[in-house]
Amino acid sequence: MKEKLYKWIFTVLAFTSLIFLIGIVIVLFKEALPIFQKVKLLEFILGKAWYPTYSTPEFGILPLILASIWVTFGAILVCVPLGVGSALYLHELAGYKQRAILKPLIELLASIPSVVYGFFGMVILTPLLQILFHLPTGLTALNASLVLGVMAIPTVCSFADDALNYVPKSFREASFAVGANRWQTLTQVVIPAAGSGISTAIILGMSRAIGETMTVLMVAGGAAVIPHSFLEPVRPMTAAIAAEMGEAPMGGLHYHALFAIALILFLTTFVFNIIAEIISRRFRIKLGLSG
Amino acid sequence: MKKNIIQNLGFFALFLCILTTLFFLGSIIYFISVRGFKVISWEFLTQGPRLGMTQGGVAPAIVGTFYLTLGAILFALPLGIACAIYLCEYSPKGFIVNLIRISINNLAGVPSVVFGLFGLAVFVKFFGFGVSILSGSLTLGILTLPLIISSAQEALLAVPQSIREASFSLGATRWETIKNIVLPTALPGILTGVILSIGRVAGETAPILFTAAAFYTRGYPKSVFSEVMALPYHIYALMTEGTHPDQQTAIAYGCSLILLFMVLAISGIAIFIRQRQRGIYG
């Protein structure tokens, strides 16, 4: 009797994650939908003007979406080579002792709070970029890309490292046996075999970068205009939500519009995570590991 | 011969990659330590802000961060451990377990600002807790739940199956086995996960923007329904609000150093312990 009670309690509590996830979806939909009674979905997504506080407000989030895409793309250019490169170094070149020191150091990079990254970007990178490129302001898409890229390195690195470790030893041995050296084995056998695992790492890194808030809020510059170059200030979706929610009157159109942005953001990262999940499951099956 | 040159070049490139990564880590810690250290004094750590955020200390923000973190862990820990126990000890593999697993993974990937909006709509507005420690702690608790579950799961999985079987063979029931055998064995691992999530929660800013944080409060929080100052939010506010950018930046350096030191020390301890544990269990 007591046994059954405990089992029942644990079963119920185990569902809390699912309940919270569903709760988030319901809340986002419920608070976002009123905006679509005033603004059509397509106008909302493709509208080029974001003037939520004007007397005749305009709710077009294309500048915000493009800003997010630019900044994330820039971050990918930083975090993929450095993250995957670091993982390959840890896997292929670092000895046991080196690995025992380097891996925790990279994990530490992941534990630095995003607001500290943002602060670092503001006080160190901003003046640097301003002088380097002769800009009116150093708070630009480039700045945000760099900081986000560095932030995403540990995510990419540790997932890529996992993927490399899943590649069976026999693959390497077979490659050595036909006369390939270590570099050839790495680039022509190990990396292709771990390829889909590495792409999972990249997708998760992207997901992290797109959802990151404080850094872009602090260093991206905040101008809600369609970006033309990396050297202009931009306002990504997360930054718009964080910066404007405090001033938006509760229950007003602006409030609902910000929830709609959050909904789009949530769905984007949700799709990324599902894709990563599917790829990594196939990858494990391909290498003969249980899903 | 040529292929060896390519190999050396390639390996050198990989070495540069990890060197660059470590260079970033080093420069963040270096700049914030050097400039933050000048600001930190006994007064800075123990007193409240004075003269419109240009003088004095950040003690209320440190205390606020402590309360928020404590609240979040108190909320998420029992839920997280219970969930991990269900997944590792009770559930047979199947559809439901997959569903729960997928929802944990996805919850972990939700952007932090979305948690903030959820907290605003549900805890602040719907339940009427207002902008308060309670709302902020609950929001942060949900955010950290996936991390606690996965570390607890890892700790439970590391408990050898033979110990459980030995317990069953002596006539212990499943709950008795969990309570007396499995949990005590897994405890160090679970604690590591808790320490890791403390480090994570303490530094989160976006979830408390609209659920708990205030730039300035008079004195210390009085109840769980008061709004609080918090270190990470304080850094952001000092850099974006107020009227004395220079003095505020100096204080922000101090706050960043305290936060960075706290988080790195906490996470460092957890990572160190975990690495040793993984070593023990192979």
Task: Give the arrangement of secondary structure elements.
The complex is a heterodimer of chains A (291) and B (282).
Chain A: H1 2-14, H2 16-32, H3 35-38, H4 41-46, E1 50-51, E2 58-59, H5 62-93, H6 96-111, H7 114-133, H8 141-166, H9 169-177, H10 182-211, H11 214-219, H12 237-244, H13 253-286
Antiparallel strand pairs in A: 1-2
Helix pairs in contact in A: 2-13, 5-8, 5-10, 6-8, 7-8, 8-10, 9-10, 10-13, 12-13
Chain B: H1 2-39, H2 42-46, E1 49-50, E2 55-56, H3 59-90, H4 95-109, H5 112-126, H6 133-157, H7 161-169, H8 174-203, H9 231-240, H10 245-281
Antiparallel strand pairs in B: 1-2
Helix pairs in contact in B: 1-10, 3-6, 3-8, 4-6, 5-6, 6-8, 7-8, 8-10, 9-10
Quick recap:
With 291 residues, chain A is an all-alpha fold.
Shape of chain A: globular
Structural class of chain A: mainly alpha
Number of strands of chain A: 2
Residues in β-strands, percent of chain B = under 5%
Widest sheet: strand ordering of chain A: 1-2
The biggest sheet of chain B amounts to: 2 strands, antiparallel
Order of strands across the biggest sheet of chain B? 1-2
Low-confidence parts of chain A, pLDDT < 50 over ≥5 residues? none
Total helices of chain A: the number is 13
Distance between the termini of chain A: 35 Å
Helical coverage of chain B, percent range: over 70%
Assembly category = heterodimer
Q: What is the CATH first-level class name of chain B?
A: Mainly Alpha
Q: Gap between N and C termini of chain B, in Å?
A: 39 Å
**Number of continuous helical runs of chain B:** 10
Question: Can you tell me the CATH topology of chain B?
Answer: MetI-like fold
Radius of gyration of chain B: 23 Å
Second rung of CATH, namely the architecture of chain B: Orthogonal Bundle
Poorly predicted spans of chain B:
none
